[in-house]
Amino acid sequence: MKKMFIRIIGICLTFIAVLFITPIFTKNNLSTQAMVIDLINPAVKKEEVYLLTTDHYHHTQKNSVDQTKDYVYHDTSYTPSGKERTLSYTSFGKKLTPYRYLKLTTKGQCVRKWEEVSLEEVPKDALNKLGIVTH
C-alpha cells in the first residue's frame, strides 16, 4: 500500500512538473505543436501582447472552407512591460495593413485573437520596444 501511494505521488509530481516546465520549451517556438501544447496546458496563462504590423508575411495557405488565401505572419511582439515574444498569427482572407498596431490575446504561443488598436492604447514600455519614442 505504501509503495502504491509513493508511485501515485511520484506520478502526480511528474505531471505537475511537466505542466510548469513545458512553457520554457514552447516560448518563442513558432511550431503548431508548441501552440497546441500551450493551448491545452492549464499552467499557461492568457496575456496581451502588442506589435507593429509590417508589409511582409511569412507564407500563405489556402483556406479549406471558402478557398480564400490566408496570410501567416511571424512577428516580434511585446508584453505591456516590454518583454519580447515571437509569435505566429494568421490574417484570414486578406493581408494586414502595414504599420498598424495590433493587440494580440495569447495563451502561450497560441494566438486566440488579435485586433487593431490606436497608438494611445499601446502601453508605454511596449511602444519603447517597438521603437516609438513617447514623452
Largest sheet: 3 strands, antiparallel
Tell me the structural class: alpha+beta
CATH C-level label:
Mainly Beta
**Domain tally:** 1
Secondary-structure element string: HHEEEEEEH
In the predicted model, the low-confidence regions spanning at least 5 consecutive residues are none
Q: What is the number of beta strands?
A: 6
What CATH architecture label applies? Beta Barrel
Protein name: YxeA family protein
Explain this structure to me?
This protein is of the alpha+beta class. It has a single domain (2-129), classed as Protein of unknown function DUF1093 (OB fold (Dihydrolipoamide Acetyltransferase, E2P), Beta Barrel), CATH 2.40.50.480. Helices cover 30% and strands 33% of the residues. The protein has helices at 2-26, 32-40, 124-129, and strands at residues 46-52, 59-62, 69-78, 84-91, 101-107, 110-117. It has a 3-stranded antiparallel β-sheet with strand order 1-5-6. A 3-stranded antiparallel β-sheet has the order 2-3-4. A hairpin with a 6-residue loop joins strand 2 and strand 3 (69-78). Helix 1 (2-26) packs across helix 2. The protein is flat and about 65 Å long. It starts with a helix and ends in a 6-residue tail after the last helix. The model has no long low-confidence stretch (mean pLDDT 90). InterPro entries: DUF1093, YxeA-like_sf. It comes from Vagococcus humatus. This is YxeA family protein.
